[in-house]
Please model this.
Amino acid sequence: MIPQTSQTKRIEPQPKQRLFLQSRADIAWYGGAAGGGKSFALILDPLRYVHIRDFTAVLFRSSFPQLVNPGGLLAETVAIYPDLGGVLRKSNLTWRFPSGATIKLGYVGSDQDVLKWQGSQIAMLGFDELTHFTEYQFWYMLSRNRSACGIKPYVRATMNPDADHFAASMLAWWLDEQGYAIPERSGALRHFVRDGDTIRWVEPDALDDAGLPARSFSFVSADVYDNPALLAKDHGYLSNLLALPTVERERLLRGNWRIRATAGTVFHRDNLAFTATPPPVIA
Model:
């Protein structure tokens, strides 16, 4: 049972966060735009199992500074984990709970860094900002997704759009032709097998070439409008997103997975004013 404190702090996920947290998929991804409460949802997820002895989770960023910078994963966990009995070992950024369960903050900055995790057994793998990781890093770390604590191993990730990242092709079914998330498919469960480097979507009872069952996968789309708590707390955040250049505004505000910085997407002729008289030259 999760330990109780003398003062109760109520944490209420918002609807899209709740949909993500309730997913039963082997692999579930969340976000696809800025401001959807992605990191907060990610740090909440493993807390459901901290009452289980030997449960292990690792939440990854792609660099150490991203973990410890103001507003990073460390700061997010410090605000919540102690209330559930978590004690932080600062030397290795590991939270230990009364049951013996641990949640570690780690990073994978290069493909070579994955070798540091050889031999690890990690029941829950979490990737914050998945598009900062390479495809190799993601799939290699899944080989560390093992469990001896009785909890079925699972993977969670958050992200913003990147048309050139492998995540974009993985999410193709959840996106329309323009690259925006299809609302009706948010949270839908599909199954896949991986043949070499190829993802093949299959029926739930399908087996891969090694005779192993297909893995389940889900994507929950969310943007800043799905996070009214943030909009109420930070009135300038939406204005900042609206002020972004076209490509970044499409990605971070509207969640466009197909847009790239190509001719016509950065500067639009129709948005420019032309004059026949050049301005005076100031010496």
Summary: Strands lie at 27-31, 56-61, 87-89, 94-96, 102-107, 124-127, 154-159, 189-195, 198-202, 215-221. Confidence is low (pLDDT under 50) at residues 271-275. Residues 11 and 80 are 9 Å apart (CA to CA). The domain at 15-271 is CATH 3.40.50.300 (Rossmann fold).
